[in-house]
Amino acid sequence: MPEPPHPSIVPMENEVQRYWGKRWGANSEIGKLRAVLVHHPGNELKAIEDSTKWLWIGKPDIPRAQQEHHAMVEALRSEGINVLYLDRDVGDRAKMYFMRDQASVTRGGVILSRMALDIRRGEERFVSSRLGELNVPILRTVHALGTLEGGNFMFLDPETVLIGIGVRTNHEGFRQASEVLTTQGLKNVIPVPQSAYLHTFPSGFVHLDVGFNVIDTDLVIVYPEGVPYELIELVRERKMRAIEVPRQEALQMSTNFLVLEPSKIMTAAGNPETLRALKKERVDVIEVSVDELMKGGGSVRCMTMPLMRDDIKK
After folding, report:
1. How far apart are CA 146 and CA 173, in angstroms?
2. Maximum C-alpha span of the chain
3. Alpha carbons 244 and 52: distance in angstroms, whole number
4. pTM as predicted
5. Which helix (H) or strand (E) holds 309?
6. Is the pLDDT of residue 142 over 90?
7. Which residues pair with 305 in a beta bridge?
């Protein structure tokens, strides 16, 4: 006589491709990039009248921003990456094209953000609905008093996630994200204090990825004044090599690049010292012009949500 079915004791992350259609998620910043979600900037940029309120440099040149974004997308596609669009009318959410922040990608899906600032709250619902269409699992939505933004979420290695704590991500958001990650079996979820601003703009480093990034299993890039010394100590303890960038190029988003595969990145053009240092370490660099887009406060990493990467072995 056949037995009735019983629960299969298998981690959900191991069954994503079978039941959700594709092997969504990532366990690193550096695994080969297969799919990325972006938003083409549009009429929402007309909302930017007060540059301080919107944390913007001047006012956007919309046609130029659109041209730059299109060229960046074409550069990604030329590398064989599946570029997916948000495909939403986002109202007045002028920073919507910074698609890194609305979710943090981990194994088997994403942690949906709760944005810290009123000018960005509401972006999450557009991303949530698009992820639903794509069948990307949402493992948790940050709620209650928690805030979490993807620019503060970064794998150092497959067993270690760094989460920047400060203006944009608070301790409650860190706690909620940590619950997801430790449930998945990650050994280390490390808070990284971030500098802030008070009355003056631009100032502070509100996201981890504007002062630090990972290039390969043994190589990172850092602007030392933008991160706490404990993070530099951790890098040294892990025997990782570190490229130091100068202040002016850090302010021009030289650390805010997208890794396409180990030691291959796409980054903003115009940072010659950083470029020389990267090439000295034999990093394959693809430069794109995003000067107008960067006036909103981010570069290539900020504008991309990596929904699928090949796993890096632990």
Report:
1. 4
2. 75
3. 30
4. 0.97
5. strand 305-309
6. yes
7. 37
Segment 261-276 shows an average pLDDT of: 98
Annotate 181-214 with b (16+ C-beta within 10 A) or e (fewer). Answer: beebebeebebbebbeeeeeeeebbbbbbbbbbb
217-236 b/e with 16+ CB inside 10 Å = b? bebbbbbbebbbeebbebbe
- Collect all residues with Cβ–Cβ distance below 8 Å to 167 and sequence separation of at least 6: 116, 194, 196, 197, 204, 206
Structure tokens at 5: 């079915």
Token pair listed for 115:
């944005």
**String of DSSP letters for 59-114:** ---HHHHHHHHHHHHHHHHHTT-EEEE-----TT-TTTT-TTTTEEEEBTEEEE-B
Domains annotated on the chain, with CATH: 23-309 (3.75.10.10)
* Tokens matching residue 205: 């480093």
Is 114 within 8 Å of 149 (Cβ atoms)?
A: no
pLDDT band at 198 (very low <50, low <70, confident <90, very high): confident
